[in-house]
Amino acid sequence: MSFLLATGADAGYFPLIQELIASVGNAMRAEIVSIGVLDGGLLPEQVSWLEAQGVSVAQPPVPDAAAAAVRKRPALAVNLGKLWLDLCFPGYETLVWLDADAWVQDGAAIAELLGASRNGALAIVPGSGRCWPRLIDIRWWLGGLGENRSFNYKNARNARLPLGISRDIGTRALLNAGAFALRTDAPHWSAMRRWQKQILRHGKPFTSDQLAMALAVYTDGHPVELLSDWCNYIAPFRVDPSRGELVEFYYPYRKVGIVHMSAKNEMRRDVTATMPVLGTDGVTYDLNLRYGVMQRMIRAAVSSDSLVDG
Questions:
Q1: Helices 163-170/151-158 angle, 10° precision
Q2: What is the span of the domain harbouring residue 262?
Q3: Strand blocks (E) in 127-183
Q4: Which residues of the chain have pLDDT under 50?
Q5: 103, 225: one domain
């Protein structure tokens, strides 16, 4: 199966792209992986560096309805461009997307994404499962009345989608667009772009990709393969200090496949920023989760016994 691994970012996130590429090379040493990058505001010298590494760089198309928002915040073009990957990077059977703030710890996770998408389904991780403390956010009012505040419902209402559609997808798991795989001949692409166009009339460009995916699956009925958090692991984290690896928080502490630093804004910008991470040895370590940085920190902590009591 020919595939390309795509990501994208602006100039500020360029170091994360470099780390993602390095992690792929380390985790998938036996394979030559084609990589593509959506340019969401990269500097010319950054584009040159990528092209020197054999990376394809593409300018994502920007729908007219989002042009003003992208001028103010160029990185939004990356979110919008996820739904146009089949046109940005033609010539491949399957496309795998990873957000720039993700990195590959176990190459088997890429193989799992590819395997799940083989028959034309969207391979993606839902916002549900044992690592999610709440499946739906409810805002409770006096008297026990509640308001659905799930990702799907909020954004569908912001986009002024029909109430019936909003209610239907509002109780379904979000589909996390930070990591997915999809064949280039799948009908999802045109369906997602059709929904994107409708969403952008009133909705938010930043969340339109994830909402469009949910609509293509839940409303249009296009096939989906829901994978475990292991293929797009966001939280809670645990570390195995003996191996210097991030593992799933709950037993049997399986090595995480794809690490996604979603919402960790300070850490994504600053390699010295840390967070407490519980070890499988019961000790809490202060770590930065970026590729390479975390491994160096845990090795230093174990060797010097400079630990934070858990």
A1: 160
A2: 233-304
A3: 138-140, 146-148, 175-183
A4: 306-310
A5: yes
3 burial level (CB within 10 Å; 0-12, 13-18, 19+): buried
Assign 3-state DSSP to the chain and report helix, strand, coil percentages, each to 5. 40, 25, 40
Number of domains in the chain: 3
pLDDT, tens digit, 9 for 90 and up, residues 138-169: 777 777 766 777 889 999 999 999 999 999 99
Two tokens, residue 20:
């993602």
Scored b (16 or more CB within 10 A) or e, 206-234 reads ebbbbbbbbbbbbbeebebbbbbbbbbbb
147 is a domain residue: yes
Q: Considering only CA atoms, which of 60, 73, 64, 53 is closest in space to residue 11?
A: 73
Report which of 75, 102, 66, 266 is spatially closest to residue 177, judged by C-alpha positions.
102
184 lies in the same domain as 271: no
> Would you call 236 helix, strand, or coil by DSSP?
coil
